[in-house]
Amino acid sequence: MRVAMIGTGYVGLVSGACFADFGHTVTCIDKDASKIARLEEGQIPIFEPGLEDLVSRNAREGRLFFATDAAKAVREADAVFIAVGTPSRRGDGHADLSYVYAAAEEIAGLIDGFTVVVTKSTVPVGTGDEIEAILRRTRPDGDFAVVSNPEFLREGAAINDFKRPDRVVVGTEDDRAQTVMRELYRPLNLNETPILFTSRRTSELVKYAANAFLAMKITFINEMADLCEALDADVQQVARGIGLDKRIGSKFLHAGPGYGGSCFPKDTLALVRTAADAGSPIRLVETTVAVNDARKKSMADKIVKALGGDVKGRRIGILGLTFKPNTDDMRDAPSLDIVPALIAGGAVVQAYDPEGHEARQLLRDVEFKSGPYEAAEDADVLVILTEWDQFRALDLDRVKLLMRRPLVVDLRNIYRPAEMKARGFEYRSVGRI
């Protein structure tokens, strides 16, 4: 099948490359000419394991193309995906749909013959209705169906998530559109992937509901971690004890400094606003948003407390700045709250992240280092903020010799308290004795 992917951001580029790897002919379209030129040269604008090889191979084999002009690709497409950004709108927290609607306006004037217009972007309930209205106003004679097909890609594991998903959700009640969508995802039949067909509005809500539930799960275990610290219990054992219950499951029960990234913060906030507008407030999600925001700020206090209540003039080493490992994404990363708070308290911060290059534009007055040991040198405390694999087996003897004081605050619980103490470290973690 022929696919046009509007948008070459994280979702668009990963989805386009994976569809091409399924054997479809895909054109990824973006208004940014310099970005398209870089992609044509094999330069990937985001860090995602395996993506560079996937893009280069499918481009080389003639299945994946890039363009700034959507006309030819849209006219020839069986399916046109809208995969543009939907950031939080300033002032009210609603999703900013301006890019989605602009894409719909452009698509409307280009479709030729029956075309399935698919929303891949995360959008509030009812967005598909508005897209259909835009298309119908521009092309009252147009032969098309508007479909919701939310993505469930984890940054750092996106290719595997696309090719081996837990499920594919498709929102349409149009028989011809269902046929097209089944054919697009037919390669997943080998893995017996469930494809759930729902109404369009239900599909739109599934995405928000999934992200809100996972965000609540993270926030729940973070609050349990605080309780564990107050009661001398171990949050990791609590998480294992409840996670073995198949009704609960073990995933997303890892205590830490709070969730961040491109999805959970904006999607929970957008869902809260949507529910309020509908007159059906969702108090659990509202509380999740508030607790998570407060948690990021409280982690700076945890570091200050470990240093005796004052960080003025203290040198703090930071390991990890991105919101999670295996990504270069800095959006709503806990570091964006924690590091400025430490600097405001008078600390000298030196930091290292393998891929967090954008941090240089987002964090002021930070000394950026070339590796984990450089970040530990002369530090009064070493803080683990992101659980990159390369931080899991540090040469602790070397770290200890480099530091001014052997104090480690591990906000990701990647080391064992007993082992760290045996190696001569003062060690603080999250929710553990």
Question: How are the SSEs placed, and which strands pair?
Answer:
Elements: E1 2-6, H1 10-21, E2 25-29, H2 33-40, H3 51-60, E3 64-67, H4 71-76, E4 79-82, H5 98-108, E5 115-119, H6 127-138, E6 144-148, H7 158-163, E7 168-171, H8 175-184, E8 195-198, H9 200-231, H10 235-243, H11 264-277, H12 283-306, E9 315-319, H13 335-344, E10 348-352, H14 359-362, E11 366-368, H15 372-376, E12 381-384, H16 396-402, E13 407-410, H17 417-422, E14 426-428
Parallel strand pairs: 1-2, 1-4, 2-3, 4-5, 5-6, 7-8, 9-10, 9-12, 10-11, 12-13, 13-14
CATH superfamily of the largest domain: NAD(P)-binding Rossmann-like Domain
In the sheet with the most strands, the strands line up as 3-2-1-4-5-6
Q: Helix fraction?
A: 40-55%
Q: How far apart are the termini? A: 56 Å
- What characterizes the major β-sheet? 6 strands, parallel
Low-confidence stretches: none
Number of strands: 14
CATH class of the largest domain: Alpha Beta
- CATH architectural category of the largest domain: 3-Layer(aba) Sandwich
Mean pLDDT: 96
Task: Write the CATH fold name of the largest domain.
Answer: Rossmann fold
Calculate Rg over CA atoms. Answer: 23 Å
Q: Proportion of β residues?
A: 5-15%
Structural class: alpha/beta
**Overall body shape:** elongated
Count of separate DSSP helical elements: 17
The structural domain count equals 2
Describe the fold and architecture:
It is a single chain. With 433 residues, the protein is an alpha/beta fold. The protein has 2 domains: 2-198, NAD(P)-binding Rossmann-like Domain (Rossmann fold, 3-Layer(aba) Sandwich), CATH 3.40.50.720; 237-428, Rossmann fold (3-Layer(aba) Sandwich), CATH 3.40.50. 43% of the residues lie in helices and 14% in strands. The chain contains 17 helices and 14 strands. Helix 5 (98-108) runs parallel beside helix 6 (127-138). The chain starts with a strand and ends in a 5-residue tail after the last strand.
